[in-house]
Amino acid sequence: MTFDPSIFTDHLGDIGSGFLVTLGTWSSGVVLGLALGMLIAVAQVFGNRFVRAPLRVFIELIRSTPFLVQLFLVYYGGPSFGISLDPIPAGILGLGVYGSVYFAEIFRTGFESVARGQLEAADCLGITRLQCIWRIQVPQMLVMILPALVNMVTVLCKETAVLSIITIPELTMVLTGIGSETFAFVETLLMLCIGYLILVELCSRLGMLLETRVGRFMSRQPR
Amino acid sequence: MFDWPLLQQNAPLLLGALWVTLQVSIAALVFGFVIGIVVGSLRLSPIPLLRRLGGAYIFVFRGIPLLVQLLFIYYFLPRVGLPNVSPTVAAIIGLSLAAGAYIAEIMRGGFLAIPGGQLEAAGLLGMSDAQMLMRIRVPQAVRLTLPALVNEMILLIKASSLVSVVGLADLTRTAQNLAASDYMFVQDYLMLAGFYCLINVPLAYAASLLERSLKERTA
Amino acid sequence: MSLDSVFRRTFNRLSIAAALALLPLAVLPSSAHADQLADVKKAGELVVGTEMQFAPFDFLEAGKQKGLNAELFEALGQEMGVKIKFLDLPWPSVLPGLEAKKFDVVAGPIIVTKARKERYHFVSPIAEATVALLAGAKDDSISKPEDIAGKTVGAGKGSAQLEELKAFAATLPQKVTIREYVDNNQAYADLAAKRIVAVANSLPNISFVAAQKSNLYKVVQPPFGKKSYFAYLGRKDADADSLIAALDAALTKMHDDGRLAALQKKWLGAEMDVPKGDFEPTW
């Protein structure tokens, strides 16, 4: 294998924009997933049976099917139901929904791990349910679930590679495209591997950094 | 909107493809389990170099999207002297290597949960390291991590939806091919999703049952 | 742990991983084969890589392979005395698969271009492949190729048809947004969903689609692409020459006795005038 750097230097603009598309869809998907996931978790923990049962079905369906298939259904199936989304909104929606059920499960474990006595005490003090969630439960559980959240965020980063099938010009799309144009298949794939490793590793390292910071912050609080 | 005769015609074809998907997923779980035990043990080795090696393996195979890994392995095998492996074997190699990284982390957790006293006792009884691994650590770690391993199987079945890039006509590829010729995209993809649920929903249920019984036993 | 050390550690690990990945590349030479034709004959089987979503050349009907490729290769196999085994891959995987020696030849067929001719060894062409546009049947705003200016058009990822579309789009006064699809059928689906106004593909392909679903699609005349041809191909390595020569000989025979023309008529709707043997592609 002769490594010809001009394969990449000739396409720097495309690679850069592909990288940005990956970053953009990833971060938007994560934000959407976290928000939806929190909603689902709150509804599951505090909602009644009629809220919980359909949510359970939804979670199982999303967790049981490949992201690829969900993406196909949202993008190519959507128009049959009158929902014709452009590739990038469809991709972000797909990524967010896929992530949300996993985030919800993480949040739910977090909620359940906060000691029951604290909630009873809060109730006695006349703190409302919503206040209780935001002021007491969320801060405590965040410390505990941060590693699991970071892990899921990196999983979503890798799932963005699948977005190429609905024509989103993200990193995988751009680099494999350069591969077929220049026939430098192995070189472009190697580049792809390195690109994702950088993203995933940076994300998990930043997560660790955040963990130590949050941990330090929490332990400084008077109890 | 639904075409019943077409559904009846496509269902057996998808069922056959589901079997392909299951075969590679099960094989990958088995080989991934072996890799996982080795790499998981490396991660807990007292020798720093071995620990790093295990860490590097997990870093690489968890850090790269499976789609990219499969393509890489597929184009790469001929360069390491394996030009003629069938698509099935290529898919199993690709999935196993990735599964190995995840199972390694699961097993590491399982190994750590075993009380140290047991291993000391076994050492006093004259067991070798290999015997300890096979007779004490692995069986207990498996019992402790069974729910996680069942979940890993679900992840593998889903991940196998990407193996068509190495030429294997799995469930997803078959549904795509059918949709391409009958133009019934929504129906075919909904059927595809249904077939995945057929396997994965019971598995998820089994995982949660296992988890509950494990909690009761340890509580 | 500071942000600085986060970056340092990331790159430390990365360099270890990259070194591990490059190791086999550096030490192992690619294995040398003597003669591919002899290997194929010995195995009694010619393995053909293709994409099963490329009607009318390759497609599935009730789960069975149909189309020109199946019948043409059947005949070529008989001439050479070997069985044919087809391997179905998503299009972007097909050419890399050939280079990775996953199969002997590629069916496709694919457009012969100058760049590809330098990289691969083509068999004589089997059909005309000039690129044209497929548009919505009731879309009056697209009546000639130039009408796509300022609109969104799809084409197959990693295809010569895509390259030709890009070249054509560059000549138009307004920017054309181009979407790249892993297979053409998804592009057809998006055309039906009106996300795109047209799909660029070779005339035989889109004529087939338009004939199948005339309520949805129409072919925009004239083709915007330069005259080009579809052919099967193999590797350029010296050991592959014998195999391509044998396929060429068999194809020439089918040319001469009219079997190729009959297949063209059956699957592509008309006989096509294609060059016999080697020729110089226009682009």
Automatic annotation (TrEMBL), chain A:
Residues 19-202 form the ABC transmembrane type-1 domain. It is found in: Cell inner membrane; Cell membrane. Its main location: membrane. InterPro entries: AA_ABC_transptr_permease_3TM, ArtM/GltK/GlnP/TcyL/YhdX-like, MetI-like, MetI-like_sf. The chain crosses the membrane at residues 20-43, 55-76, 88-107, 141-168, 188-210. It is a multi-pass membrane protein. The keyword Amino-acid biosynthesis does not apply. Keywords: Amino-acid transport, Cell membrane, Membrane, Transmembrane, Transmembrane helix, Transport. Part of the binding-protein-dependent transport system for glutamine; probably responsible for the translocation of the substrate across the membrane. Belongs to the binding-protein-dependent transport system permease family. HisMQ subfamily. This is Amino acid ABC transporter permease. It comes from Pseudomonas petrae.
Automatic annotation (TrEMBL), chain B:
It comes from the Bacteria. Pfam families: BPD_transp_1. Keywords: Amino-acid transport, Cell membrane, Membrane, Transmembrane, Transmembrane helix, Transport. Residues 18-211 form the ABC transmembrane type-1 domain. The keyword RNA-binding does not apply. The chain crosses the membrane at residues 20-44, 56-77, 89-107, 144-169, 189-210. It is a multi-pass membrane protein. It is found in: Cell inner membrane; Cell membrane. Its main location: membrane. InterPro entries: AA_ABC_transptr_permease_3TM, ArtM/GltK/GlnP/TcyL/YhdX-like, MetI-like, MetI-like_sf. Belongs to the binding-protein-dependent transport system permease family. HisMQ subfamily. This is Amino acid ABC transporter permease. It comes from Pseudomonas petrae. The lineage of its organism: Bacteria, Pseudomonadati, Pseudomonadota, Gammaproteobacteria, Pseudomonadales.
Automatic annotation (TrEMBL), chain C:
Keywords: Signal. Residues 45-271 form the Solute-binding protein family 3/N-terminal domain. It holds the Pfam family SBP_bac_3. Residues 1-34 form the signal peptide. Belongs to the bacterial solute-binding protein 3 family. PANTHER family: L-CYSTINE-BINDING PROTEIN TCYJ, MEMBRANE-BOUND LYTIC MUREIN TRANSGLYCOSYLASE F. This is Transporter substrate-binding domain-containing protein. It comes from Pseudomonas petrae.
